[in-house]
Amino acid sequence: MKHTDIKQLFASPETYVNKKVTVCGWVRTARASKSIIFIELNDGTCLKNIQLIIEESENAFETAKTSLAVGTALCVTGKVVESERNGYEMIENQITVLGECPSDFPLQKKHHTLEYLRTIPHLRPRTRFFEAMFAVRNELSYAIHKYFHEHGYKYVHTPILTGSDCEGAGEMFRVTTQPWKTSHKTEGEYYADDFFGTKASLTVSGQLEGEIAAMGLGKIYTFGPTFRAEHSNTPRHAAEFWHIEPEVCFCDLHDIIEIAEDFIKFIIREVMRTCPEELAFFNERAEKGLIEKLEAVVSHDFAKVSYTDAVEILKNSNKEFKFPVEWGADLQTEHEKYLTDEHFKKPVFVTDYPAKIKSFYMKQNPDGQTVAATDLLVPGVGEIIGCSEREADLGKLEDAMKKRNMPLEAYGEYIATRKFGSVPHSGFGLGLERILMYVTGVSNIRDTLLYPRTVGSL
């Protein structure tokens, strides 16, 4: 049906003032007296509602009286007029009920807890909070594509179904067409009879295929869903999330750190430019001082510290940590938060981690103990980027894989890239939901996804 988006109406009101306009949407609030009815309508295109005013003398008054239930879907044709209080309103309205909404609609109140809204994910996009969240998610996603497009990267689509574990952690979801009960005597027989004739899983990362693409295309990025069967029921972990992974040839660790910082600042600036109302909403509802935080991020250099120095900073902090701080152990969330929130008070790149706690594909440093890797830690969230220069030396790569008891034959195509014209190259991975948490100040990853997939919850 022909209608005008409410966002468009507010964006260029001079086009519509004193003219008849048709809008559609859902009733957000309604109140009535004997002689006048006020209805606030929202269509999901922006946070603002358009207020409808229906007087007793109008033909639409009786229809409006039956359309006061929150959640009712309406199509309204009326005249747009200026309003001192609301900016613009609609009067002389004609109302058609598109969808009635009974009294047991769960969103009758103005404010619901995020915990409650997680129990009704099919309805929570009707709330202002999730309107704002998905508006920011949309603009953030567009900004990511815009950055890479403007900087000459090619967007490649890597497989979701895979036979290899990029991270080597084994936390993968198996994909099968086999019935749960079989007569196979061995695992080999079971997989030989499956769709691909071998074990298949959902990808944890498109990096390995991305590296292969970069070896011919120079600069590429992937942006798609990834899956990790991690039993981490924390506010920062989801089993299904969206992953951004650029790969850049002729690029060392220092180069990729510069790219990562430039990228993060660019996408935050874009969201600040395109979503001022939504960020103001989150500044009020999620994190006080959010806008000032984002302004500081885009206008200041990020800090940089080696893993070794970070360990010394933590040891000398006089803080009691739940997890002990020792060289060779991975940094825990509490350690990351101290570094970002208290010591540096801004985003920080921690570089040169011990090889044994990082992935097999990372370039080995001359000291024989650390790798050319970095994590970008940000206040309030912790790690949002994992980054490294990749090991370009065939012998060193194979040795690292053998130490981890990895089956080299399963990675034959990846290994071959180091045999035929290998070059220095680097890349990073950024979880969309992690950066979305940082940009909105929302503390739980479940509130950044339409349908969050977490351990024990499908």
How is this structure best described in words?
The chain has 458 residues and is α+β, with helices and mostly antiparallel strands. The protein has helices at 6-11, 61-65, 114-117, 128-150, 187-192, 207-217, 253-274, 276-285, 290-299, 307-315, 333-344, 394-403, 412-416, 432-440; strands spanning 20-32, 36-42, 50-55, 73-83, 87-99, 154-155, 161-162, 174-175, 200-202, 219-227, 240-249, 303-306, 348-351, 373-378, 382-389, 425-431. Strands 6-10-11-16-15-14-13-12 form an 8-stranded mixed sheet. The chain has a 5-stranded mixed β-barrel with strand order 1-2-3-5-4. A 3-stranded antiparallel sheet has the order 7-9-8, with no helix packed on it. Strand 14 and strand 15 form a beta hairpin.
